[in-house]
Design brief:
Mean pLDDT: 92
Low-confidence stretches: 162-169
Largest sheet: 6 strands, mixed
Distance between the termini: 16 Å
Helix content: 40-55%
Radius of gyration: 18 Å
Number of domains: 1
Shape: globular
Number of helices: 11
Order of helices and strands: EHHEHHHEHHEHHHEEH
Number of strands: 6
CATH topology: Rossmann fold
Strand content: 15-25%
CATH class: Alpha Beta
Oligomer: single chain
């Protein structure tokens, strides 16, 4: 049988742009429909948020329980060093080969790699330079496009203070969201070609999921329609 599913989808966009809702929809979709309409196999995930959150928790323990210096962040929760953002991408490179230990991994699985980057901490231009060719050569990119104002609105809406570590319910204070994500470099990063970005000599196809009208919130039929359009386009570019 001819393989008809993506190996890797790199899913990016501002915080609260709709990435997690897209993933949640794909999780709930019928497996056969998911393959046919979206070219997505059994789902597997790499997301830098759990890694980042673990650093926050470690710093809290070090400072408040053990009386030791914080390792990763300052007292306001900002990274001490810009290179820590790139370390998160390097962790993807470390984790991906572990997936490949499973025989014929991509015959079954589509790996979704999810993250956000703002210009303040290097943007997508810097982040993608840290992906290894092993990932890039298998990947296709979906950028979920919303203006900052929409990211801010949805970030406020989704935040649950009782579950700050939750993928679907975490959020950032307005001040931090503005500093880290008001400016993004996706347009600059992708402007050379409307279909591919070239990273480390690898041409990676991309497609943009426009979500200013927020089809990812409580409108599953509209989400499915747009997602199908985006992923069918991306599949044609990849193949």
């Amino acid at each position: 049988m001819t393989k008809n599913t993506f190996d890797i989808i790199i899913l990016i966009g501002r915080p609260a742009s709709g990435k997690s809702e897209i993933i949640d929809y794909l999780k709930r979709a019928n497996a056969e429909k998911r393959r046919e309409l979206f070219h997505v196999g059994a789902l597997d995930f790499l997301d830098d948020f759990p890694m980042l959150w673990a650093w926050f928790e470690e710093d809290h323990i070090l400072e408040n329980v053990m009386g030791q210096p914080r390792l990763h962040t300052d007292s306001k929760g900002y990274f001490k060093h810009e290179y820590l953002w790139h370390l998160l991408i390097e962790r993807f490179n470390l984790e991906y080969p572990k997936r490949l230990r499973e025989e014929n991994y991509h015959d079954k699985h589509t790996l979704i790699i999810e993250f956000s980057r703002g210009s303040e901490h290097g943007g997508y231009t810097s982040a993608f330079q840290h992906f290894g060719k092993e990932i890039l050569e298998c990947a296709a990119i979906v950028y979920v496009n919303v203006p900052f104002e929409e990211s801010l609105r949805k970030n406020r809406r989704r935040f649950n203070p009782d579950r700050p570590d939750s993928i679907l319910e975490h959020g950032l204070p307005d001040e931090k969201l503005e500093r880290l994500y008001k400016e993004v470099d996706w347009a600059e990063f992708s402007k050379a070609d409307p279909e591919f970005v070239t990273v480390n000599d690898v041409k990676v196809p991309y497609a943009v999921f426009e979500n200013e009208d927020d089809v990812t919130t409580d409108t599953p039929s509209l989400l499915a329609e747009r997602l199908e359009e985006v992923l069918q386009k991306l599949w044609a570019l990849k193949n």
